[in-house]
Amino acid sequence: MWEDIVITLANLLFTYALVPQVYHGFKTKKSGIVLQTSALTTIGLYATCLSFFSLALFFSGTVTLVNGTLWAILFIQRLKYRR
Question: Does the predicted TM-score (pTM) go above 0.85?
Answer without folding.
Answer: yes
